[in-house]
Write a structure and sequence with these properties.
The protein is globular, with a radius of gyration of 17 Å. The protein has a single domain (2-223), classed as TIM Barrel. With 229 residues, it is α/β, with parallel strands linked by helices. The protein has an eight-stranded parallel sheet with strand order 7-6-5-4-3-2-1-8. Helix 7 (171-186) links the parallel strand 6 and strand 7. The chain has helices at residues 2-19, 38-46, 57-63, 84-87, 100-112, 139-147, 171-186, 205-210, 220-223, and strands spanning 28-32, 51-54, 72-75, 93-97, 117-122, 152-158, 192-198, 215-218. The chain binds pyridoxal-5'-phosphate.
């Protein structure tokens, strides 16, 4: 079933790319595996999937040693500063930097590990009370502050759009994120690139691709509904 789901997501990605005149290779599919058992991750891996997303450090640390080395792990959830040390070296991209203090901690741990950690800045595009992320109007200021940290490289922006049955209602938030990235990119801040836009989930990834997403995060559409216990 996972292979079939991946195939059908792939077809929808290709169609969205075609509609918007984009190259398929400019969109990276991250399979979101939170709460899902290892067998399901193996099945996705065997079907060729390599980018996986988790929202908890513990879950990455538990699953990673059980799976092949060429999996790429993405940290997509809210990150607590006391979990950063464990995470460094386990993930290719942290999507969820939303404060200077968190960035400072990531940088310090990355420096200790002698790496530079690629990160995205999480933006609360719809200004929802329930969501993490920096407000759109404060994004450039945070990017500028974080850009001075030696252990971090800012590579773009991420947003979690509101839950909706109608993906069109999220289009303005995807447009906003892309525009923010373009505006910040035009400021040519040292040590900052804005090439990555992490936006779009099962319910709205096609619209996100049409608006420039480079990383879409799809869970339910590949693995089915999550059961929280
Ligand atoms: C769970 C989650 C997703 C995947 O959501 P689906 O609707 O299951 O595709 C994407 N991004 C983040 C940050 C998540 O926590």
């Amino acid at each position: 079933m996972i292979r079939e789901n991946l195939d059908s997501i792939e077809t929808r990605i290709r169609m969205a790319c075609e509609r918007s005149g984009r190259d398929r290779s400019s969109v990276h599919l991250i399979a979101v595996t939170k709460t899902k058992p290892l067998e399901m991750l193996r099945e996705a891996y065997d079907a060729g999937q390599r980018d996986f997303g988790e929202n908890k450090v513990q879950e990455i640390c538990r699953k990673k040693p059980e799976l092949p080395d060429d999996l790429r792990w993405h940290m997509i959830g809210h990150l607590q500063r006391n979990k950063v040390r464990q995470l460094i070296g386990q993930t290719v991209l942290i999507h969820s930097v939303d404060s200077y203090r968190l960035a400072e901690t990531i940088s310090a741990e990355a420096v200790k590990a002698q790496i530079v950690m690629p990160v995205l800045i999480e933006v609360n595009a719809a200004k929802e009370d329930s969501k993490y992320g920096v407000m759109p109007e404060n994004t450039e200021e945070l990017v500028r502050a974080v850009s001075g940290l030696p252990g971090i490289h800012v590579e773009g922006l991420m947003t979690i759009a509101p839950y909706t049955d109608d993906p069109e209602t999220n289009r303005p938030y995807f447009v906003l994120l892309r525009q923010l990235a373009v505006d910040i990119d035009n400021k040519c801040i040292d040590n900052v690139s804005m090439g990555k836009l992490s936006m779009g989930m099962t319910g709205d990834f096609e619209v996100a691709i049409e608006e420039g997403a480079t990383h879409i995060r799809v869970g339910t559409g590949i693995f089915g509904e999550r059961i929280y216990t």
